[in-house]
Amino acid sequence: MNEERIVAVLGLGLFGIAVAKTLAKNGVEVIAIDKNMNHVEEVSNIITNAVQGDFTKIDNLQAAFVDRADTAIVATGEQLEVTITAIFHLKKLGVKNIIVKTKNMMYKDVLEKVGADRVLLPEVEIGIELGSEIAQARVQDLLELDDDYHIIEIEALDEWQNKTLRDLDLVGNSKLNVLGVKDPGDDKYSFLVESNYVFKKGDRVVVLSGNKEINNVALELETIDE
Fold first, then answer.
1. pLDDT tens, residue by residue, 66-106
2. Most CB within 10 Å of its CB: which of 16, 24, 33, 167?
3. CA-CA distances (angstroms) from residue 197 to 160, 187, 190, 221?
């Protein structure tokens, strides 16, 4: 087995089941453990190593070969002592990367101190993701070049209308390099944009942009909608 492709999921509530199934569907070997047999049976159709057991007991973790996993996810976060016990056992078994779910910032601090490599607060993270999705609803990410730069498609801002590319100086002012423009009535982009091109309402624009500039444009678009 490839240890780097084995993930143990401890706890099969809604979160744990979603994580386990997604990993399995993407070709990752999963070890799933839960005390509730109904939960185990819910994932057993796609996860061959789904076992019933109490993961706060190290013998059960060893019996399920959790020590062969490179990453373990403690997917239940309601009881702090349960999560801490699981972290201690996983550390003792030599699991390199421990990810845990919790429900508040106070627990997060404690869990990081006892050895969790990453602590998830799903409600907070979903809230941030949803906010970003709404803010960037009019920004389509076409291609991620690296960690810093993307090629994106945006709708021309209202402040660009009736101004030329030369007037706007988007490279100098906004760090946006215009690669192509599509008129609302056209089906295809023009990728030879002259400096005297006058932007119109509804133009779609392909630009090379840094991450910071993407966020700035998204916020401007959201402000326009309001």
1. 999 999 999 987 789 999 999 999 999 999 999 999 988 88
2. 33
3. 11, 18, 11, 21
CATH number assigned to the domain covering 3-123? 3.40.50.720
Q: Which segments of 4-140 does DSSP mark as H helices, in order?
A: 14-25, 37-43, 58-63, 80-92, 105-113, 122-135
Count of beta carbons in the 10 Å neighbourhood of residue 20: 29
**What is the pTM assigned to this prediction?**
0.60
> Residue 189 phi/psi, 5° resolution?
-80, 150
Which tokens in the block code for residue 139? 């920004």
Architecture of domain 136-225: 2-Layer Sandwich (3.30)
Distance CA 197, CA 200 (A): 10
Written as six digits, the tokens of 124 are 């907070």
